[in-house]
Amino acid sequence: MINVNNLTRLYGEFKAVDDISFVVNEGEITGLLGPNGAGKTTTLRMLSCYLQPNSGSIVVDGKNTMNEPLEIKKMIGYLPESAPLYGDMLVFDYLMFVSEIRGIEGTESIKKVAEMCRIKDVMHKSINELSKGYRQRVGLAHAMIHDPKILILDEPTSGLDPIEIVEIRELIKELGKRKTVILSTHILSEVEAACDRVIIINKGRIVADDKTGLLGTSGADNRIIIKISGTDYDSLKSGLMNISGVKKINHIDDKELIAAEVFYDKNLDLRPEIFKLAGSKGWIMYEMKQEQTSLENIFRELTERV
């Protein structure tokens, strides 16, 4: 459906997006995950033909964004982080206005998106009267008014309260059954709750790309939490770093014990070696817990590497 090849975008000498490539398959909900300033919004703006890349290409359903941007825009519904709504208009009038711009006749498309986005009860209200959650829904209805094949959503739950966040996530999952969806976020739970696949981007480059449930098998290293007594942190760190496969050790604050988190190659199990080390040194082991790989751990590890 979407093929991105060696995409680069510069702002002056700054590379906001740095030679990225990925494919989005039809019917997927793909999360573009990264810290603030990672290049997510710039990538989405290029995908939606709002910006042109300095180099590389984007092909959407066989059409190149450089040569056929208007044809691609017809296939895409784009919701930026701040939905561009006219606050003094009634919701119905606003959607009617958008329909007319799109050349859509009648009100059937408005009724359809109002039902899908669950805004039927506020169609008679001014947009300025609506909560942030309902304004996001109106923006989503705007993006969907022409029944696009692809939805591109930039931080769709930004600024919403917990109830509104859950409602928007459920709506996105429902839409993903009928459309290809790409959403950007820096909220980890957003990706876990709504996405089939995650692309992690940091400092303009892709650092991971996999199915949401499989990312742990190809992403961050394994991690063990250790809590001991009978030594100090420097001695613990020195002993652990002599074990083959250990990559990094972080200190953990603990008022009673010496504690550390140990990162090591994902194909190893270092617990026996750590236990032997503690025994040989006469340390008392209070805890040795292998942490289950989570998206939070993966995200932190991958974005710290670059």
What about the largest sheet? Answer: 6 strands, mixed
- The rounded distance between the terminal residues' Cα atoms is 29 Å
Fraction of residues in H or I helices:
25-40%
Mean pLDDT: 89
Q: Which outline best applies?
A: elongated
Beta-strand percentage?
A: 25-35%
Helix tally equals 10
Give the ordered list of helices and strands: EEEHEEHEHHHEHEHEEEHEEHEH
The class by helix and strand makeup works out as alpha/beta
Low-confidence stretches: none
Strand segment count = 14
- Rg measurement, Å: 24 Å
Strands of the widest sheet, in order across it, are 6-7-8-3-9-10
Name a few traits of the molecule.
306 residues; alpha/beta; 4-stranded antiparallel beta sheet; 10 helices; 33% helix
Describe, in plain words, how this protein is organized in 3D.
With 306 residues, the chain is of the alpha/beta class. Helices cover 33% and strands 30% of the residues. The protein has ten helices and 14 strands. The protein has helices at residues 40-47, 69-75, 91-101, 108-116, 132-144, 162-175, 188-194, 233-241, 271-281, 295-305; strands at 2-11, 14-24, 29-33, 55-60, 63-64, 76-79, 150-154, 180-185, 197-202, 205-211, 222-229, 246-252, 258-264, 284-291. The strands form three sheets. A six-stranded mixed beta sheet has the order 6-7-8-3-9-10, sandwiched between helices. It has a four-stranded antiparallel beta sheet with strand order 2-1-4-5, covered by helices on one side. β7 (150-154), α6 (162-175) and β8 form a beta-alpha-beta unit. α4 (108-116) crosses α5 (132-144). The longest helix has 14 residues, at 162-175. The radius of gyration is 24 Å and the shape is elongated. The mean pLDDT is 89.
